[in-house]
């Protein structure tokens, strides 16, 4: 049987977590379309967005991370370079999280193109319960036009736009 260890994250792990995030393929992501900057990622980590966020240690090396969200969503990420026993490590991590952090229900929120992880969760007793769709909106053109009119008004009335433009574009 595979032996893993779950370790609480600390500031010394921020770079590892960022690199792990950077390894993801677009079809694996659900929370972003492009990778955030390192400083924004650190701010995200410091905001403590998850109920539990741990690193996965295997054979005395940190190889991945997992979290349990405040909505009981489980996510497990293992470095691409890990080849041996990858799905067994996923399964062991899932079992450890469920054992250590008991809940009435657990969820996995996945990109629908991430077939490998969809199959993993199905094989481990998870059932599909709903689909979520997204549509990107566009900026209201009226807002842009109104901002242009306000700037023109200020210019005509002697205001220094460089000092006041922040009022309109926060």
The gist of it:
This protein is an alpha+beta fold and 170 residues long. It has helices spanning 14-22, 38-46, 86-100, 115-123, 141-156, 161-164, and strands at residues 4-8, 50-58, 61-69, 74-78.
What quaternary form is this?
single chain
Q: What is the helix/strand order?
A: EHHEEEHHHH
Report the sheet with the most strands, covering strand number, pairing sense and barrel closure: 4 strands, antiparallel
Distance, first to last CA: 55 Å
With strands numbered from the N-terminus, the spatial order across the biggest sheet is 1-2-3-4
As a percent range, the share of helical residues equals: 25-40%
| Number of DSSP helical runs | 6
Average pLDDT score = 82
Query: β content, as a range?
Result: 15-25%
Radius of gyration: 22 Å
**Care to count the β-strands?**
4
Structural class: alpha+beta
Shape, principal axes of CA atoms:
elongated
> Which regions have little confidence, pLDDT < 50, spanning 5+ residues?
161-170
Q: How would you summarize the topology of this molecule?
A:
Elements: E1 4-8, H1 14-22, H2 38-46, E2 50-58, E3 61-69, E4 74-78, H3 86-100, H4 115-123, H5 141-156, H6 161-164
Antiparallel strand pairs: 1-2, 2-3, 3-4
């Amino acid at each position: 049987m595979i032996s893993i260890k779950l370790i609480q994250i600390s500031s010394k792990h921020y770079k590892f977590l960022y690199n792990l995030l950077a390894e993801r393929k677009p079809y694996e992501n659900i929370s972003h379309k492009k990778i955030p900057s390192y400083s924004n990622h650190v701010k995200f980590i410091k905001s403590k967005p998850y109920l539990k966020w741990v690193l996965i240690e295997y054979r005395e090396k940190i190889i991945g991370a997992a979290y349990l969200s405040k909505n009981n969503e489980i996510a497990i990420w293992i470095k691409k370079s890990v080849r041996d026993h990858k799905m067994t490590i996923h399964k062991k991590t899932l079992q450890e999280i469920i054992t250590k952090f008991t809940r009435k229900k657990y969820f996995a929120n996945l990109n629908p193109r991430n077939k490998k992880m969809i199959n993993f969760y199905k094989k481990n007793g998870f059932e599909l319960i709903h689909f979520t769709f997204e549509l990107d909106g566009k900026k209201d053109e009226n807002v842009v036009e109104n901002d242009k009119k306000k700037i023109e008004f200020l210019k005509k009335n002697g205001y220094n736009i460089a000092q006041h433009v922040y009022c309109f574009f926060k």
